[in-house]
Amino acid sequence: MWNESTPLYKQIANHIKEDIANAELTHGDAIPSETKLAGTYGVSRVTVREAIKQLVDEDILYRVQGSGTYVSHEKIEHDILKLQGFTEEMSSLDNDPSNDILEFQLMSPPEEAREHLKIDEKVYYVKRLRLADYEPLILEESYLPVDLFPDLSIDVMKRSKYDYISSKGYKIERRYGELIPIMPNDEMMKHLQIAEHDPLLFMEAFSTFRDGTVFEYSKVYFHPHKYSFKVVSSRNGE
Q: What is d(CA 14, CA 20) in angstroms, rounded to the nearest whole number?
């Protein structure tokens, strides 16, 4: 049954891929447990674990701590040079966007927010879990000046923040940010449903209106198995 010239775990990995296709499993579907797979293929759990690791490394599968192993999503190719809201981006991909409000409070800005917003006055702090088709994609923390958005509410933040801002007559111009890889903490693992060894991309950013006013300071954590980032470069202005 097995080809001795190919490592057994690689053969098992190929069989798992074939079984995923034959069962017509799609993104987010669970695969059987290691014990069940070991019984199905007549190999050890160690071999199955190595096979699954290979498929995780290939982004075909992903693990959720304390839950199981799932078929990976086709990654969203996020254009970091295009300034658009999450709702706008998901709608353009025919996904159904939604937001779970984890925290919403009025507070004095912490030092990092105060430095970027250049204010000492009260801000709204909003923590949102951003979903598409009910699956978590982004954990976001935002700080917005009360003076600019006195009627900001939980209901507003459940919908499109950018639509709300535009409805106030403001013209959004730029976002300045930095992307760095980080390891998740317990909260990120819980909300994004990822494992402790899954590095994710973290973006710290501030956004401005056309007149240069900084209207938001944010921290954004992107799901490592559901997002990729693309950029188009040209040579010598061509």
A: 10
